[in-house]
Design goal:
single chain; 12 helices
Length: 280
């Protein structure tokens, strides 16, 4: 009860001050999404071993993160994959959203978990790249996200943000229903979630999200079968990266926002990165 009260109080008093259109904090939030360096990802087709680039939360430098337009842009630009975050609403609908609270994206109190789907669909984007041009867009469902990739070469990458295990089968069912079992990638920091997904589907590609690469985490990924490591670029040097690659484990690094860093990783043998700012 108290948490609900304080959430509403913060929304009413502090959110407009911190994130309102006239706030310097709001300007900084938009500035953070602007591309610092550009790379033409179509050029990757011209070399024998291209760098495969994942659009982190869609192309969030051109549209609000996790929105349908951000993911449609990833398909249009030819990204290898587009990553999204999914959470369950209070009435068990998977929707795309990352932050713990709703205030950052929608200037609303509360969380996805304590809000029903119908209410969430009334909220408009209140921040993110070019958000004023996307006022008719609503928070997307997992099904709507998957529809973006049907018939395309861009792979949908789904990060499960809930601590839920009972509803994981519905994620697998949604992927199968769209005919994307061979294309979709399901990712999580929660190893037990990946184990559960593997029980439902023996073939779907999984990525185990980790901060630091260790032998134990490499072994755990191998044990699942068709499972990669997706590791924090800032926490892993050449030794850790080489450890994973030398054992034949698929490896992707996040979040790589510099062409120079991408080139260094390429020289180490990395062929998969995730980015907020590299775009065509």
């Amino acid at each position: 009860m108290l948490n609900s009260f304080f959430n509403k109080l913060i929304s009413i008093l502090l959110v407009p001050l911190l994130l309102g259109a006239n706030s310097p904090f709001f300007a900084l939030r938009l500035k953070a999404n602007e591309p610092k360096e550009l790379i033409s990802i179509s050029q990757s087709e011209k070399i024998a071993e291209p760098m495969h680039i994942t659009a982190h939360r869609g192309v969030n430098s051109q549209a609000p993160e996790n929105s349908l337009p951000a993911n449609k842009k990833a398909v249009e630009l030819g990204y290898y994959s587009a990553e999204c975050d999914i959470k369950l609403t209070s009435d068990n609908v998977w929707v795309l959203h990352h932050d713990p609270l709703l205030m950052g994206d929608f200037l609303k109190a509360g969380t996805v978990a304590n809000t029903d789907f119908e209410t969430l669909r009334t909220y408009k984007y209140a921040s993110g790249a070019d958000f004023m041009n996307y006022q008719d867009e609503k928070i997307p469902t997992l099904d709507e996200f998957l529809d973006v990739f049907v018939g395309s070469s861009t792979r949908p990458q789904i990060e499960i943000k809930n601590n839920n295990y009972d509803m994981l089968y519905t994620v697998v069912d949604a992927v199968r229903a769209k005919g994307l079992s061979k294309s979709a990638i399901i990712i999580s920091f929660d190893y037990k979630q990946l184990q559960k997904i593997r029980e439902y589907d023996s073939d779907i590609e999984l990525w185990y999200l980790v901060y630091g690469i260790t032998q134990n985490k490499i072994d755990k990924a191998k044990a699942l079968g068709n499972c990669w490591l997706s590791a924090d670029f800032s926490l892993n040097g050449a030794k850790a990266i080489t450890l994973a690659l030398s054992q034949g484990v698929g490896l992707s690094l996040w979040t790589v926002d510099s062409v120079k860093d991408a080139e260094k990783l390429y020289d180490l043998g990395v062929r998969y990165i995730e980015t907020d700012r590299l775009c065509k």
